[in-house]
Structure formats: C-alpha cells, structure tokens
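Thread: quick sanity check before group meeting

JM: Hey all, I'm pulling together slides for Thursday and realized we never actually wrote out the predicted structure for the chain we discussed last week. Dropping the sequence here so it's in one place. If anyone has concerns about the input, flag it before I start.
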Amino acid sequence: MGEHPSSADTPLWEVVELDQFHTPEQTQASQWRRSLRSVSTWLVGKNAAEQQVKEESELHALPEVRLAHLVPPIDWSFAAKALAQQLESCQAPVTFFIAPPHGGHTAVVRQWAEEHQVACLPPPTLNELAKGGTEWVERCVNQQKWAVPALERHFLRHTQGIQGIREFLERALSGRLGQGVIGCDSWAYAYLQQVIGINGAPVFTLQSMEGEQLSRYFAALATHEGQPPAVYSTRTGKQVLSDSASEQNGKAPNKELQRLAAHCRGHVGLAWHYWRKRLREPNADDEDALWLVDALAEAELSANTGDIATLVLHALLVHGGLDDHALGDVLPFSHHEALNARLALQRKGIILSCEGRWQVAPLSYASVRQLLESRNYLVDPL
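JM (edit): ok, ran it. Output follows.
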C-alpha cells in the first residue's frame, strides 16, 4: 500500500484512507522470524530456543492495581477525533472505518457518534440472522444520519444469514437510508467486499505505528510525573522506552519496540495487549526497574494445525467472534466437530471468550493470520 514516511513527526493517531495504510518496517522479517521460532521450538524445545539476558524466573507479574496505573485502557477518543476530521469533507452516503481484531473500530465509531449526536443502529439478534429475515433493516429507515459501530454483528456466513446485510448495504450505499458511518472488523470487510461488493464507499483506518510511536505512546501511558519508568528487555537487557533526552538528541528508540510494531503490523490495540501482558517486576526488593519479557512470545499455533481448527479460526475472524451455536451454523461440519475444535483451541490459549463470543486471542492473532495467509484463505487488508 502506501510508502513509509518518517515516523519522527507523525501523530500517534492518524486516520488515513485504506489504500494509504502501510505496515511498519521489518514486518516481513517479523513473519520470517515467527516461522523460524516455531521450527526452533519444535526442534530444540522452547527454553533452548529462547536465550534471555534476564530469566523470567527472576521476575513476577505486576499487581493488577499497579498494572492498571501503568497501562490503563486505550483511550480511543483521539482516534475518534481524527476520524471526525476526515469525515468533515466526506459527502458519500456511507463511509467505512475498519480495524483488525482488538483494533477499536467499535469504540471509535461509537465515540464519534456520541460526540456528534448521531444515533447508533442496533444489530439484529442471532435468531433474526439465522432465520434470514430482513425486518431489522426496516428499523434502520427514517434516519437522516446514523452509525453502525460493528457491522460484523449484522450477518452470518450462510445463505439465510447474508440476506439482511445484502439488503441493508444495497439501501445504504444508494443513499436511501440517509448518511451513515459504519465501523467494521477488517476481516468482515474483506468477506463482504468479496461476496456482496461495496466498492465506491470511502474506507478509512488507523495508520500503523512504528516502534518510535509505540515508545512515545507507552511512555505517555505510564508517565504521571516526570520521566516514564525504566523498562528493560529480558531478551537484550537494553532499555525499551526512550527518555525525553534521547528523543531530543534524535536517538533511535530501542529495537524491541520496532520488533513489536512489526509483529503486530503496527496495530496499537494488539501492541497494547502484548505490553500489558509481558510487563514484569523483579523478585528482589532492591530493584525498581520494570522488565518486558520476550514481547513476541505467544500462544503457540502449530504449523500442522488441522483443517477443522483452521476453518474455525477463519470463521471467528470473519464474524468478529461467535458463540458456540452460531459457530456450528456457519461451518461445513457438525456442531459436535466444531465444539471439539473450539475446545482444543481454547485449551491452547489460541482463542478466548469475550462478552459471550469466542475470539482469536490478541497474543495469538499474528500467528493465526500468518497461518491462514499461508494456506490461501481470504485475509484482511490490514
């Protein structure tokens, strides 16, 4: 997609057109390292494959209270303001804002709608989708301006489940429903683009963050007075966050965060989960520094993952998560086989439950996406 500009003066929250999105530097190299790490772990074992400067046994997880202080939830209002700036010059009947799993598209569109007093259209129930009814589309009429925070909640990938979304998008794109802003998971967007076609509508997304931008973001999160806390990499022993002096001198931030940026394809929502999950403090009371355990460690997804498990993972991504019943409805095998595959993935930590739906876990997303792409599945554009 777009060219890689310098990140030195780039704002943290930049909303761009989809064709201007680019992955961070070293993203391809990160994929190669992930594949090599998987092979190394298989050949020599996890402990032998990962050489560390600081052993994890010397560290322990931070108390939840301190963790909440150092890594509070992402404030998506900055992204919502950046989206609002782009929408000021948009006259199209429908504008899309897409993001990958855990990328905040629902929160961004919802916050934009609240700020501009725009009604959010409620999604249909799973029962309505399963029956293939279009009654829910009729509830969307008579709205001059409207928003849909999560379009992936408006369809199921089967004959009946796609009828309503087809009717809704046809009306919306023609302007018969007024002017709307649609938030959509990037995998659902790719699927709907293929089966329905939504060409012509403007599509925006958050620009990827490079390592320098992640350094600024995580330092700002943890800084309440003075300098951010010292955080060191267990892999290299070097400081991860740049202090203000090094930034003023033009010194490059630690390579650890560039590796993290590449691994997460620049998506701050995914990087936030890694950062929060991997922060540690030393067991010794006389040490004040924090440590970041191998930022790229993740729930292992075997290269020989079976076809049923792979289909389950793809279905979960396309729908932005599903419960067990709906998951069985959209797969070409029995509910029993789907349940067994889901249980196996859950035990491995590849998927987790969120608000009653099974989703690909944040720390497994990169390896799942790479596996699906290697097997020629339809993948998202981000």
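AS: nice. Residues 27-44 form the longest helix (18 residues). Residues 307-360 form a domain with the Arc Repressor Mutant, subunit A fold (CATH 1.10.10).
JM: adding both to the slides.
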